[in-house]
Write a structure and sequence with these properties.
Largest sheet: 2 strands, antiparallel
Strand content: under 5%
Organism: Pinctada imbricata (Atlantic pearl-oyster)
Number of strands: 2
Keywords: Coiled coil
Protein name: Translin-associated factor X-interacting protein 1 N-terminal domain-containing protein
Strand order of the largest sheet: 1-2
InterPro entries: ARM-type_fold, Clathrin_H-chain_linker, CLHC1, TSNAXIP1_N
Shape: flat
Pfam family, one: TSNAXIP1_N
Number of helices: 26
Length: 621
């Protein structure tokens, strides 16, 4: 293809289309492509033919660069025209369908109305048929009822006609039989006799089969009683032999005779006991009982006790009363009367219901959240309130359960009342339970630490009591208590500091007491808190001591005096503490500590030098 040239008129001259063999080859290739693609598709489909010629047109535009703008504009005009035609066809089809629907709308509405009229007519016919059938059904039912009544009348036995008895009433004369007042009196007597006979029939007389059942039950009860009697005799005999063996072993341990073992002593004692029992069975029973009582110091074997205990009616009544008491408790519990059931269980005879099992039963009750008091707390209150009447405190397990219930209900007031009234069996575990329930930061505000401290003090657990005092924020009172009741060692003070660290406690441990002794060296206090990652507390402690003048020398600080008294902390530990302060950006605090450490190091050097000079002088002399 050659470049464009200008015509004499000034317009650009369009170069020829075919200028070389390459253009001819391209045209041949395009024709072959068109023929090949037309063979592959349906030549009668204009859409497919349009796609083929569009692709060929694109190839021509790419090949002929000189005609590219012209051909591109021509292609765009064609595509716009085709798109407009297609759009017009789509709109024409849509409008045709819409027009057809609008044309058929009146006939559709007319058909719907006609169908509605037909259905209404059919419904009216069905309603008429239903009314007719309902009337027929009622008529049939009426006929059936009348027919059944007629059959019952035919099948019923004929009524008996009362015959008039014209005989005289037995036991009455003619005059008495015609006396109306006397007849009424006799009628009242007969009515009363009839009522008495009916009452006797219902109460005094029973079927004979029930007598057989009662006899069988009585025989079973007697057999069971005999079995229990035999079992009790065996148990008493076994207990008696064990008692003889224990007493023989105790006597052997007191004397320890030579050439005899514990087994020999027990065997000999059991043999004598069996001989005594044989004598007791024989006629000389009273003398054997007296001898046995003198030798053993207690009533003789199991055969001396008769079976009167087993047949004691008082014990049977007591067992029946306990059984009724338990049944009453179960009845109240099942009816949902939990407070009445709790009071009933707390006042049970011999404490049969004052157990952990009963408490677990109350614990398993699911109640609505809106209830102010849970059934478990009601039972615990009833148990604690009945301590004075019963005379015995609940055991350790039940006490711990009641304490846990009060803590879960946040009723520390109840717990304080129970402890002050001495209604709990207190142990170290109960104190730990209350102390661990506290979630307050120092100082404690919930009151649990005060209750735990009271328990520890009653049990003489002074270390735990001191920890509770410190957790309440009563640092000086706790240290004074520790000094008077149980003097603490250095390790104990360190453990207390780890347990409840506070600025007040640190100051109290670093201060001198009346004898001029500090409970803990200041270096130990700082290192213990740094082990627990309490850097902010340590920083505040150091800064306050550096800003507070010493009582002995107002020119120096309390920190300076405390460091000079610390002979246990090494120089390396002080250097690491200074480096830590510098790394955290507290240069002023670190500088004050460096000056104090320098003075302490100089004093230690002088002290050690004087000690060395003294040793040299002693060696020379």
């Amino acid at each position: 293809m050659s470049s464009r040239a200008s015509t004499p008129g000034g317009f650009p001259k369009i170069p020829p289309i075919i200028t070389s063999e390459l253009d001819r080859a391209f045209l041949v290739h395009v024709n072959e492509y068109i023929e090949e693609e037309l063979r592959k598709v349906d030549s009668r489909d204009p859409e497919q033919r349009y796609i083929i010629y569009r692709n060929v047109f694109n190839k021509i535009i790419e090949h002929v660069s000189a005609y590219k703008p012209l051909l591109t504009s021509i292609k765009k005009e064609y595509e716009d025209t085709i798109e407009a035609i297609q759009k017009g066809q789509r709109e024409a089809a849509y409008l045709h369908g819409k027009l057809k629907a609008m044309a058929s709308e009146p006939s559709t509405i007319r058909n719907y109305r006609k169908r509605a009229d037909e259905l209404e007519e059919r419904l009216s016919v069905i309603d008429k048929d239903n009314d007719r059938l309902t009337k027929q059904l009622e008529e049939l039912k009426q006929k059936r009822r009348s027919h059944e009544e007629q059959e019952r009348e035919e099948q019923a036995p004929p009524k008996r006609e009362l015959k008039k008895d014209r005989r005289l009433i037995p036991g009455l004369t003619l005059e008495e039989a015609t006396d109306l007042n006397l007849l009424y009196k006799n009628l009242d007597v007969l009515d009363r006799q009839l009522k008495e006979l009916n009452i006797s029939l219902r109460t005094r007389y029973l079927p004979k089969s029930q007598k057989v059942d009662l006899k069988d039950k009585l025989d079973n009860k007697v057999d069971y009683r005999d079995q229990l009697v035999r079992q009790g005799q065996l148990y008493r005999a076994k207990r008696y032999r064990l008692k003889i063996a224990v007493e023989a072993a105790q006597a052997y341990n007191r004397v320890k005779p030579p050439h005899q073992t514990v087994g020999d002593a027990v065997t000999f004692a059991l043999a004598q006991a069996s001989g005594m029992q044989v004598q007791e069975k024989e006629p000389g029973q009273e003398q054997g009982q007296q001898d046995g009582q003198q030798r053993e110091g207690s009533p003789s074997g199991p055969h001396t006790t008769t079976s009167f205990d087993d047949d004691d009616p008082n014990k049977e009544k007591e067992a029946e009363m306990m059984l009724e008491y338990i049944e009453k408790f179960n009845e109240l519990f099942e009816d949902g009367k939990y407070e009445d059931a709790a009071i009933h269980a707390a006042n049970s005879p011999k404490g049969i219901l004052r157990t952990s099992a009963t408490l677990a039963k109350f614990r398993d009750v699911l109640v609505p959240v809106r209830r102010q008091k849970s059934p478990l707390l009601s039972f615990c209150e009833a148990v604690m309130a009945s301590v004075g009447a019963v005379g015995t405190k609940p055991n350790k397990e039940l006490s711990e359960e009641c304490i846990q219930c009060a803590l879960n209900e946040n009723r520390t007031d109840l717990l304080s009342h129970w402890i002050s009234q001495d209604r709990l069996s207190l142990t170290k575990n109960t104190g730990d339970l209350i102390s661990k329930h506290c979630r307050c930061k120092v100082p404690c505000k919930c009151g649990c630490q005060a209750l735990a401290q009271n328990i520890y003090a009653k049990l003489h657990l002074h270390n735990d009591a001191v920890v509770c005092l410190l957790k309440q924020g009563r640092v000086y009172a706790g240290l004074e208590y520790a000094k008077n009741k149980a003097p603490f060692s250095k390790d104990t003070y360190m453990e207390v500091l780890r347990t409840c660290p506070s600025l007040q406690l640190m100051q109290a441990l670093a201060a001198e007491d009346d004898s001029g002794v500090r409970p803990l060296p200041i270096g130990t206090i700082i290192l213990v808190l740094l082990e627990n990652n309490q850097f902010e507390l340590v920083l505040q402690f150091i800064q306050e001591l550096q800003n507070t003048p010493s009582a002995d020398d107002p020119k120096t600080s309390m920190f300076h005096a405390a460091v000079l008294d610390d002979m246990e902390t090494s120089s390396d530990q002080w250097d690491s503490l200074v480096k830590l302060l510098q790394d955290q950006g507290y240069e002023e605090t670190a500088t004050g500590m460096i000056s104090t450490i320098t003075v302490m190091a100089a004093m230690k050097t002088v002290f050690y030098k004087s000690l060395a000079d003294t040793d040299d002088e002693e060696k020379t002399t």
